[in-house]
Write a structure and sequence with these properties.
The longest helix has 15 residues. 49% of the residues lie in helices and 0% in strands. The protein starts with 11 loop residues before the first helix and ends in a 14-residue tail after the last helix. The protein has two domains: 32 residues, no CATH class; 30 residues. By secondary structure, the protein is an all-alpha fold.
Length: 88
């Protein structure tokens, strides 16, 4: 199998930590990236979930509340409010 070089730019501290992690689990970064690439090709997706969990705006309960509000407005049953600017 022919080999090629793959370059990745990343924060130097992230690279150092990643190198240390790979060494702890008995591999190097080349092996880790090859495993990642093969998992993507095998599964036809990124092998992990990408989520916006840290922002409560995107929580399922808030999104459901927003959808209910939009549906109410679209059906003529909602109430529109003015935005009030508040200075501290």
């Amino acid at each position: 199998m022919a080999q090629t070089t793959f370059s990745v730019r990343m924060d130097s501290d992230v690279k150092r930590q990643f190198d240390e992690f790979c060494a702890q689990v008995g591999m190097n970064t080349t092996v880790a990236f090859n495993m990642f690439a093969r998992a993507v090709l095998r599964e036809r997706r990124l092998p992990f979930d990408i989520a916006v969990d840290s922002d409560p705006f995107y929580s399922e309960s808030n999104l459901a509340h927003l959808r209910r509000g939009i549906a109410a407005l679209n059906s003529g049953k909602g109430i529109e409010h003015d935005i009030l600017e508040v200075s501290e």
